[in-house]
């Protein structure tokens, strides 16, 4: 498997940034990151950042609750949040 590109350190967050961080932190078997900002055009918070949907499957989630899985994802993305993640929908499952 080819390593994901390292996240950029400036500018708005991209789906590739999120992908790279989650792959490094959680070693997922499945990971899909979609930028859904276009679905929220005109929404009051749309100017504050982007809207993303993450679908992730990882052995790291084994034996954890849904809340714990979401916390692991948010913890991994903590450094990207100030760069403009306005909304994050998460589907996180164990293998």
Tell me the name of the CATH class. Answer: Alpha Beta
Q: Approximately how much beta-strand content do the residues carry?
A: 15-25%
The helix-and-strand class reads alpha+beta
Q: Mind telling me which CATH architecture this is?
A: 2-Layer Sandwich
How many separate domains? 1
What is the ordering of alpha helices and beta strands? HEEHE
Principal-axes geometry comes out as globular
Oligomeric assembly: single chain
Radius of gyration: 13 Å
Q: Work out the number of β strands.
A: 3
**The CATH H-level homologous superfamily:** BolA-like
Query: What are the low-pLDDT stretches, counting only 5+ consecutive residues below 50?
Result: 1-6
Strand order of the largest sheet: 1-2-3
What is the arithmetic mean of pLDDT? 86
Number of helices: 2
Instruction: Summarize the biggest pleated sheet.
Output: 3 strands, mixed
Helix content: 10-25%
Structural description of this entry:
The protein has 95 residues and is α+β, with helices and mostly antiparallel strands. It has one domain: 2-Layer Sandwich (GMP Synthetase, Chain A, domain 3). The chain has two helices and three strands, in the order H-E-E-H-E.
């Amino acid at each position: 498997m080819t390593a994901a590109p390292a996240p950029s350190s400036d500018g708005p967050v991209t789906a590739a940034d999120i992908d790279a961080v989650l792959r490094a932190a959680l070693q997922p078997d499945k990971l899909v990151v979609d930028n859904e900002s276009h679905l929220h055009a005109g929404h009051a918070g749309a100017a504050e950042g982007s809207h993303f949907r993450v679908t992730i499957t990882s052995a790291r989630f084994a034996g954890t609750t849904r809340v714990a899985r979401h916390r692991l994802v948010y913890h991994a993305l903590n450094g990207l949040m100030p760069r403009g993640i306005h909304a994050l929908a998460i589907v996180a499952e164990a293998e």
